[in-house]
Write a structure and sequence with these properties.
There is one protein chain. With 1019 residues, the chain is an alpha/beta fold. Helix content is 55%, strand content 9%. It has 31 helices and 17 strands. The strands form 4 sheets. An 8-stranded parallel beta barrel has the order 7-8-9-11-13-14-15-16, surrounded by 4 helices. The chain has a 5-stranded mixed β-sheet with strand order 2-3-5-4-6, covered by helices on one side. The longest helix has 57 residues. The radius of gyration is 35 Å and the shape is elongated.
Length: 1019
């Protein structure tokens, strides 16, 4: 067997191995993406009903109210008298007598006895008696008779009803809301109260905050709630009881601050307790200060959350806090969200996502539950942990729930879970993890739906809440209550400035707070009656007006479900990169209309498959939603404004429906545009392209009108269309890029064909043909690289360099639609370092063999990319990548093989000049430099910042990802990755250098006896 034959066989084997490795990489990429769907079992709430709307019943005139003394009775009676004073009409004299025994204070049962003119509440405990008074007040507010339940025993199905803190302590500052780009999740509650230095508290602001808190507590009690979640924990702890060391050294301001804050807010907690409201401190874990983190690391070696002793530190803090503040009832813990998005600048209290394993969760709960049992308190643990380590799907996966929480049955532990199988989106199934577990359970609801424009749209969730509670209670007797978010969830200042009880049209989402409490007390409640009562309380006592409002609210879910979601996508459970993306991915998130290829291409593919290829069915949902909102608007607008309690409320209701209609028209146009765009990439149909272009024109007109009308409006803010516009700009270039790719592809193929046939034809004598021939031979048979470059003219040599370099630049520019200079800088920076290092090592030897080999393979690699781009441009390239697994695997296999073959060919070509060892060293050192230098630059810039800039230009992942969660956080990319890559590149460079230098005084003789003078020329 000749040497040439052996080399040919080796080249073929190498190629096969590289392609096989590339195919394996393609399969691994597909597994990592993990894009798949499965049917979702939707909730099936009852259809809207029409309540029997008669005239509102006048409130009675209270001629006497007798009740035991105490703050709880006083607050309830104040609520009763305020409701009476606000009633539209008072008629008839009535007395009220309240009698309570010394029974179980957890028992809310009471009996309404007496007559219509002499009512009597009889209860076994103070709790039941007070609840009876609040119920009478609620009946007056909603236009019902106070004798509605005369002769009946009234009780509550579920005893635990908790709310968040509403907007207590939050300043309604229009300037903070006007930009609409603050996606911080920090409420900044009590910002005016807290001072950075001693005495740490502004007493005047504290007094205002206390009045704010008092109003919220009284309002929530009147709505039927009996517990609240107060933000903070470590802020109030001095850690004086920690054994084995001092957390805060003498004079540390953290300790002084903790004592000051405890003294300031202790009266808040006591006041709530006096009025009958339990108080739970709400915190993320791990919650830290700088000295606390230093202490934990110094003591335990790290933030080892699997170490029980670490949790003993927090338990000691709770012991200290409960001893000092007996009004506190427990702590509420979340482990699934933490970090910068919740931090307040200049405030050394922060959190870390450090509880990531089942062992860590179990250790935490066992330690803190034992502390709660010993102190007669409770621990509420939230299962919200989406995307975090091994406990990442505990919230939605019954097996994971059991693995984390199975066997932990402390009577002091309550497990809290969102009712949806994911976050608070529509179209999600009921969360079946609420049907399991031996622990006490509570169900989480959200009134001001953050993902459905923060409650700015009418959104009657009563029927869905009822379905959820009834289904879950049938399945799990351990459910004992709810936690209703009246205000919290998501960014505070990126949407409308609606602050509960304070600013904006908060009465819209008050309905969901009221209906949740009503259903918790009686799951069989007629939710239409609750909606009618809410309408009477806030808007009108006119039956026709109330009926119109109830009718509009009955349509509200249809408008949101069809207008803000694409049903064919939302109706599926979608899985990707180990997570379960939400059903509203095209709005990522809250108010950012996304324009990235990953989301929109997958959304199209799933919608296409769900409709059997009829994408128009998915488009029609947006138009139907607009029609529904227009019907709602007509219904409400037709009512007589004079029948409303305040004509301004009539205007507000119609204005919010105008706003919703505008948003849904915009979304409908965008939906049509992105789905037709996907259809063009999928089918290459000219009709689909024409439809996309027409949709684009309509969308851009609607977008401009939307921004002109609503930008800067704090009540009806404009959607954030930056990402969508970037997507449009990229899509507009796709057809032009496809044509450029076709032209470049023809030129590249011509170069290869000329090179392949030049030796056998007279073409070889043409200018440039020798260069093409050398490029072809060196790239496919690199051991012949040197001989192929002998005797070339100066023009041919330059073409060997210029053609591959120009083609590489052009290909990458087309691939990025001439929009990502970051991408080009990284790619060409890496190649430049590779070329420089190789050129330095080659020295006085001829550089043309390695230039021919590397350049020839680059041309082949560009041909593969250009062929993929030639169908429908970069958009089509990425469409196939995200949605076509076979194409993706095949492309990666070939592209990877050619990428690695560049370095194999370079080494092989160099080995003819300096033998294999040194040639390998040259290539390894060049690869190391090409990896290390760009990595160092990225490390200095910051990985998150660099990825954000790159993604903004490329549009592969949601634009909002970096602004909200951070790309590195969401994808769990270690921030030190560029430094690791730089270090690895440095190691390769050193290894290459060691291999490249002569190991003897005189290196092995070169196999070439001599070279022509023109082959020694350098550039």
């Amino acid at each position: 067997m000749t040497k040439a034959t052996r080399r040919g066989i080796l080249a073929v084997v190498t190629t096969v191995v590289l392609v096989a490795l590339g195919a394996g990489l393609g399969v691994a990429v597909g597994d990592a993406l993990g894009i798949r769907t499965e049917p979702a079992e939707q909730m099936s709430p009852a259809a809207p009903t029409v309540p029997d709307l008669g005239q509102a019943v006048p409130a009675p005139r209270w001629t006497g109210v007798e009740a035991p003394e105490g703050a709880r009775y006083d607050a309830a009676i104040d609520s009763l008298l305020d409701a009476t004073a606000d009633a539209f009409e008072r008629e008839g004299d009535t007395t009220l007598t309240v009698v309570a025994g010394d029974g179980d204070e957890a028992d809310e049962t009471y009996r309404l006895a007496g007559t219509g003119s002499a009512l009597r509440i009889e209860a076994a405990s103070q709790t039941g008696a007070v609840r009876g008074i609040y119920d009478l007040a609620a009946q007056i507010r909603t236009g019902e008779s106070v004798a509605e339940h005369l002769g009946e025993e009234v009780t509550s199905a579920l005893p635990f009803r908790m709310v968040d803190m509403g907007a207590v302590g939050v300043e309604p500052d229009p300037a903070a809301w006007e930009p609409g780009t603050d996606y911080s999740h920090a409420s900044k509650a009590f910002a005016d109260v807290l001072l950075p230095e001693a005495p740490y508290i502004d007493e005047a602001a504290l007094a205002e905050a206390f009045a704010d808190f008092d109003e919220f507590v009284r309002h929530s009690l009147a709505n039927g709630y009996n517990a609240l979640a107060f933000p903070g924990f470590v802020e109030f702890v001095a850690f004086d009881e920690v054994e084995g060391g001092i957390v805060y050294t003498p004079g540390d301001e953290h300790r002084a601050q903790a004592l000051a804050l405890r003294e300031a807010f202790g009266p808040f907690w006591q006041h709530a307790d006096d009025l009958g409201m339990d108080v739970f401190l709400r915190t993320d874990m791990l919650t830290l200060t700088t000295p606390l983190e230093d202490y934990l690391v110094d003591t335990f070696g790290s933030l080892d959350t699997e170490n029980p002793a670490l949790w003993d530190v927090y338990a000691a803090g709770l012991d200290e806090l409960y001893d000092a503040e007996p009004a506190l009832d427990g702590i509420l813990i979340r482990i699934g969200e933490a970090g910068q998005v919740y931090d307040v600048e200049g405030w050394d209290y922060y959190s870390q996502l450090a509880v990531r394993t089942p062992t860590a969760v179990r250790t935490m709960l066992e330690t803190l539950s034992a502390q709660a049992e010993a102190s007669d308190r409770e621990v509420i643990f939230r299962t919200w942990s989406v995307g975090v380590g091994a406990v990442g799907d505990m919230h939605t996966n019954p097996a994971s729930y059991e693995a984390v929480l199975g066997g932990i049955d402390s009577p002091a532990l309550i497990v809290s879970t969102k009712y949806t199988l994911g976050d608070f989106y529509s179209w999600l199934p009921l969360n079946d993890t609420l049907e399991q577990g031996a622990q006490r359970r509570i169900v989480e609801f959200q009134s001001r739906r953050e993902f459905e424009n923060f409650g700015a749209f009418p959104n009657d969730l009563g029927r869905e809440y009822q379905y959820a509670l009834q289904t879950l209670l049938d399945a799990n007797p351990n459910i004992e209550g709810v936690w209703v978010w009246t205000q919290d969830g998501g960014p505070w200042r990126a949407g409308p400035m609606t602050l509960y009880l304070k600013a904006g049209f908060w009465q819209l989402y008050e309905l969901d707070t009221v209906v949740a409490a009503a259903l918790t007390r009686d799951p069989e409640t007629d939710v239409a009656d609750v909606t009618a009562g809410w309408a009477r309380q806030w808007f009108s006592d006119d039956p026709e007006t109330v009926g119109a409002i109830v009718e509009a609210m009955g349509l509200s879910r249809e408008a949101i479900e069809q207008g803000m979601y694409i049903e064919q996508f939302a109706d599926q459970r979608v899985f990707a990169i180990g997570l379960e993306p939400p059903p509203m991915m095209w709005i990522f998130e809250w108010d950012i209309l996304t324009g990235d290829s990953a989301v929109l291409d997958v959304l199209y593919a799933i919608s296409r498959d769900a409709t059997g290829g009829d994408i128009e069915a998915a488009i029609a949902g947006g138009e139907e939603a607009v029609a529904t909102v227009e019907r709602m608007r007509e219904t409400v607008a037709a009512t007589d404004a004079s029948t409303w309690r305040d004509p301004a409320m009539h205007a507000a209701f119609t204005e919010t429906l105008d706003y919703e209609a505008d948003v849904l028209r915009l979304l409908a146009a965008y939906r049509a545009m992105i789905l037709h765009q996907g259809e063009w990439h999928d089918t290459l149909s000219p009709d689909a392209y024409a439809a996309w272009d027409a949709d684009r024109v309509e969308y851009e007109a609607l977008a401009a009108a939307h921004l002109e009308k609503y930008e800067g409006d704090i009540d009806y803010p404009a959607y954030n269309l930056t990402a969508a516009q970037l997507g449009v700009e990229r899509a507009e270039r796709d057809l032009a890029m496809a044509w450029m790719a076709r032209v470049l592809l023809l030129l590249a193929l011509a170069w290869v064909v000329i090179g392949a046939v030049a030796a056998r034809t007279s073409l070889v004598r043409r200018p440039g043909a020798a260069a093409a021939r050398a490029s072809w031979i060196a790239s496919t048979r690199p051991w012949r690289a040197r001989e192929s470059t002998l005797g070339m003219l100066e023009l041919d040599r330059w073409l060997l360099l210029v053609i591959p370099a120009a083609l590489l630049i052009a290909t990458r520019a087309v691939q990025t639609s001439f929009l990502s200079w970051t991408h080009l800088a990284v790619v060409f920076g890496a190649w430049a370092m590779f070329a420089i290092v190789v050129r330095v090592f080659v020295g006085r030897r001829s550089p043309w063999p390695v230039i021919a080999a590397v350049g020839g393979v680059i041309v082949l690699r560009c041909i593969v990319t250009l062929a993929s781009l030639s169908f429908s441009g970069p958009g089509g390239y990425w469409f196939a990548f995200w949605t076509e697994p076979v194409f993706r695997t095949a492309y990666i296999a070939v592209a990877f093989a050619l990428f690695v073959w560049v370095f194999v060919a370079a080494g092989w070509a160099l080995s003819i000049q300096v033998r294999a060892r040194r040639a390998t060293g040259y290539v390894l050192a060049a690869i190391g430099a090409g990896l290390a230098v760009p990595s160092l630059v990225i490390g200095l810039i910051g990985l998150e910042r660099a990825l954000t800039l790159w993604n903004d230009e490329m549009g592969l992942l949601p634009w909002g990802l970096a602004r909200i969660l951070g790309i590195t956080t969401y994808l769990e990319i270690p921030p030190e990755t560029p430094w690791i890559a730089a270090a690895f590149g440095g190691v390769l460079f050193v290894i290459g250098l060691l291999l490249a230098v002569p190991w003897r005084r005189r290196d092995e003789a070169s196999p070439s006896v001599s070279v022509a003078a023109d082959d020694l020329s350098v550039m």
